[in-house]
Amino acid sequence: MGRIWEDQNKYQRWLDVELAVVETLAAGGVIPKDAAAEIKARASFSVDRINKIEAEVKHDVIAFTTCVAEHINHPASRWLHFGLTSSDIVDTAFAVQLV
């Protein structure tokens, strides 16, 4: 039960939601398919790095997306979180955690 609520799992669910949106937007022609492929191939995160960024910016989702963009390290990262709000990610991932 405790593992469900650990930061590593929470952020993994956030990433799962981000990647599902990227895939959907690419399938619909909203973002380039090659950008989606780059994002999916490179996306990752570090809880320690997210915590460090959050201490500076005081916003958990900005810290998360910044960290993931650093891992992507490619111009395609501009499409990460495209058209989304923080609540879109947090609330959807929270629902997944509850299930």
Strand content: under 5%
Order of helices and strands: HHHHH
**Individual helix count:** 5
What's the mean pLDDT score?
97
Unreliable runs: none
What is the molecular shape? globular
Q: Structural class of the secondary structure composition? A: mainly alpha
Rounded to the nearest angstrom, the radius of gyration is 13 Å
Main sheet makeup? none
Q: What's the count of strands? A: 0
The first-to-last residue Cα distance is 12 Å
Helix content: 55-70%
Characteristic terms for this protein:
single chain, 99 residues, mainly alpha, 5 helices, 69% helix
How would you portray this structure in words?
The chain has 99 residues and is mainly α. The chain is built from five helices and no strands. Helix 1 packs antiparallel against helix 2. The model has no long low-confidence stretch (mean pLDDT 97).
Describe, in short, the structure shown.
The chain is built from 5 helices and no strands.
Helices and strands in order:
Layout: H1 7-27, H2 33-42, H3 47-57, H4 60-72, H5 86-98
Helix pairs in contact: 1-2, 1-5, 3-4
